[in-house]
Structure formats: structure tokens, C-alpha cells
Amino acid sequence: MKNTKEKIAYLQGLSRGLDVEESSKEGKVLSGIISILDDLAEQIEDIEIAQEDLEDYVESIDEDLYDLEGDLLGEVDLVDEDIVEVVCPRCEETVCFEADIIDDEDLIEVTCPNCDEVVFINDQDLIEGLGADRGLSLTDDRGISLVSSVDEDI
Fold first, then answer.
1. What is the pLDDT of residues 42-51, one digit of tens each?
2. What's the CA gap between 141 and 133, in Å, rounded?
3. pLDDT tens, residue by residue, 15-50
4. In angstroms, rounded to a whole number, what is the distance separating the alpha carbons of residues 44 and 8?
5. What three-state secondary structure class fits 72?
6. What's the per-residue H, E or C state across 28-45?
7. What is the C-alpha separation between 152 and 109, in angstroms, rounded?
8. Are 14 and 7 in contact (CB under 8 A)?
9. Given 3-state DSSP classes, what are the helix, strand and coil percentages for the chain, each rounded to the nearest 5?
10. How far is CA 136 from its chain centroid?
């Protein structure tokens, strides 16, 4: 904010150097504009200080909330042994998902968040080729799975 205040002080100096009488029409306008600019600069400085205080306060609340969650829920282990990693065949991004998905009874497709390519399907019938036995092509011309286009009623 000092930069803005310095610029306003510079404008005040320039206006004084013009030898424009403050009692003239031009002098009153110029003086009024510079006065308003100075007031605005001070208000912006106050807002910036209030914003910094608010950010500090929200950060302390966030830290307190994190501590409270830890006390109530126990420490959460971010490294989970039940995570499956699959490499996307299109963009080679590593996609992670919970191992529970593998045994889920519903048809679940895991897609790459980078390119939306289906990287895993938990339906064993489709994986083993039952869909192909019913006359459905489950791969495209590159050999990439098209299982996302297969109906659940198959």
C-alpha cells in the first residue's frame, strides 16, 4: 500500500508545482480528486489489514478443527494398505482406489481423473469375457476396454 500512498503524495507535489490556485475551479477539482484518492488509499489499507487478521483467524480455527477431528476420530492413517494402484493405458497416470471396490456386488468402473479412460471394472463376467460370448465387443481397435458402454443388464 505504500506504493499507492507514495504515488498520491507525488501527485500532490505535482499539483502544487503547477501553481494552480486552490481557490480556482481547476485547483478545487484537482485538490478534491487528490483528497479522495488519499482517503481511498487509507480505506484500502484498513481493508488489507482486516483481511490479514481474518486470514489468521480462519487459519487458527482450521488448526483447532483439525485437532478436534483428531481427538474425536482418532489419528487417520493416510497410508492405507487396502489401496489398489492401476496405470491408465491411455495417459499412463497412476490411479488409486480402495480395494473394497474389487469385491463390490454392483458394477463399478474406475476411470482415470486425467483422461476419463476406464482403468478398472469389478464385474468378473465382463473381465472373463462373458460379454464377448454374448456378441459384444469389449475392446476398441487399439485393444482398450470399452466396458463403460456395456449395459448392466447383460
1. 999 999 999 9
2. 18
3. 888 888 888 898 899 989 999 999 999 999 999 999
4. 13
5. helix
6. HHHHHHHHHHHHHHHHHH
7. 11
8. no
9. 55, 10, 35
10. 40
